[in-house]
Structure formats: structure tokens, C-alpha cells
Amino acid sequence: MDRYHRVEKPRPESAINENEIRITTQGLIKNYITYASSLVQEKRIGEIVLKAMGQAISKTVAIAEILKKRIPGLHQDTKISSVSITDVWEPIEEGLVPLEMTRHVSMISISLSTRELSKNSPG
Fold this sequence. Notes:
Mean pLDDT: 91
Strand order of the largest sheet: 1-4-5-3-2
Shape: elongated
Structural class: alpha+beta
Helix content: 10-25%
Distance between the termini: 40 Å
Largest sheet: 5 strands, mixed
Oligomer: single chain
Number of strands: 5
CATH topology: Translation Initiation Factor IF3
CATH superfamily: Alba-like domain
CATH class: Alpha Beta
Order of helices and strands: EEHEHEE
Number of helices: 2
């Protein structure tokens, strides 16, 4: 792949709900916990949703467990899935064709609520 460079595609901007927190690998756990705690305790939002993809999943699980320990009475519902991401690679040298590679990335969504969540949900 040293003869190719990846073409950055513009990401579609999707609206993020006030109760949704997207966890990344660069963010600090302390900041996510502080923000989530303020949503639940100060703004009185009944349910928050932690979302992450790929390598940030383990950080998201840790954040959810810390929040459940710090805020008594939180209920959890976890959903896992995968997303297909297509990367386009353009050749640097003449005579090579552009490549499209599809990769599957794991995704997690953890709902933490002060109200009891659906008992029919598997997570």
C-alpha cells in the first residue's frame, strides 16, 4: 500500500441528540464521566447513550461501569453491531488503478437510564 494514499471522504454530519455521547480513543475518560454525570444529575436527563466504534469500545464499557458505580439506580441496556466502511485509495504512481477496500468495524451503544429499561431487550 506504499504506492497508494487514502482519499479522505467528507463525513456526513448527523445530528447528535443532547443525551448522546460519542466516545473516541483520543478523549479523556475523566472528561466523559464529568459530562455524563452533569447530564444525569444537573440537567436531569433521564437517559444517556454512550456510543463508540472500534478501539474506543473498551473505554466506553469502562466509562459505563464507572458511571453506574458513581450514580446509584442507573439501568443499562447494551447493543452491539458492526458497520461497513469503504476506504478509497488513489495511486501515487502512474499506471495503477484506484482501490476500494471495505472493512467491518464493531460498534457499541450503551444506554444508561434512571428509569427501568425494557426487560425484553437482550442487552
